[in-house]
Amino acid sequence: MTASRHHSLFSFGTLRDERVQTALFGRTVPSSPASLAGHATRPLKITDPDVIAASGLDVHLALECRLGSTVEGAVLHLTDEELAAADAYEVDDYVRRRVRLSSGEDAWAYLDADPLRPAARIVIAGDSIAYGRCDPRGGWAARLATRHIAANEHDHRLFNLAVPGSTLADVAEQTPALLAARRPDTLLVAAGINDSAVPLSAPDRGPDDLAARVAGHLASLAATAREHAARLVVLGPLWLDESRTADYEGLRFTESRALALRESLRAWCAEHHVDHVDLWAPLHGRPDLLTDGIHPTPEGHELLHRHLTAGPERG
Predict the structure, then answer these.
(1) Does the structure show a pLDDT above 80 at 48?
(2) Structural domain of 86
(3) Which of 23, 28, 141, 154 is the most buried (most CB within 10 A)?
(4) Separation CA 155–CA 149 (nearest Å)
(5) Which ranges of 41-107 does DSSP label H, i.e. alpha helix?
């Protein structure tokens, strides 16, 4: 029988209450004081009757990113079973993600289910689609920047570091050196279609080679995000029009490999509790929204922006 592992969970709200712990875990759990820098709290209305009954409150707290602020709380030391009970207690407005505490230690915490809602300083890394190629307005990233900065011009920033032609390997190698000066709390990685490309001169080995490569690059980016106490959000890929990509500047792009990339991203993010925003649906079956089979038109970028900012209900 496998022994239960021990987990560190940063709590800044009702999970510190001994009554809640007894109701969830059958005991009060070991804990130690801790703090989370770069964050503040805001109220969140709760409607789940079971959660209200356990906590005695219909308003809980949610984290938002705020440079220079710190949230005081405690690290709860939980077993596998207790962590699962905590997951069941938290409402759908929260998701469990890794954070780096002020002490430098990593712990789980329940964050806003919409990774963009609490963000303040966003860095985008990716390829030509994230760069905004084929759109004079700068693509979905420029639209996101306009919306984000307008919401709070004093505190919000967005830095687009996307480079046309980049793969996840390029992003994983180049991004770490660029983050310190920008002090991001959120790292959006647009995992573009380049990772699925096969040179025309090479045989198509099928999609089996994608999963391992994607996993290694994403693990490296996750470590980079943790080093900067930033939340990693993986975006993509987009649907492509295979009828126009059989020979694209010496590369072959196919829908089957794009779908394999999509599944690799989703599976890795689900396993490692990392946010994944699937961008396949908005342009699926709409070749009129792609200028060359790969890059969105301005109208395509507008749809991607709406999808990205729709929140967890995006599906």
Answers:
(1) no
(2) 6-112
(3) 141
(4) 8
(5) 49-55, 80-89
Looking at the structure, tell me whether residues 145 and 283 fall in a common domain: yes
Q: Decide: residue 189, CB within 10 A, 0-12 exposed, 13-18 middle, 19+ buried.
A: buried
Output the pLDDT for position 123: 98
Alpha carbon dihedral 218, 219, 220, 224, in 10-degree steps, equals 100
Q: Measure the N-to-C terminal CA separation of the chain; round to a whole number of Å.
A: 37
Residues 92 and 142 in one domain: no
| Mean predicted lDDT score pLDDT of the chain | 91
3-class DSSP assignment, residue 217:
helix
Which of the listed residues 112, 137, 168 is the one where a domain comes to its end? Answer: 112
Q: What is the pLDDT of residues 67-118, one digit of tens each?
A: 999 999 999 999 999 999 999 998 888 899 999 999 999 999 999 999 999 9
Nearest to 160 by CA among 143, 169, 170, 152: 143
Whether the predicted model's global pTM rises above the 0.70 cut: yes
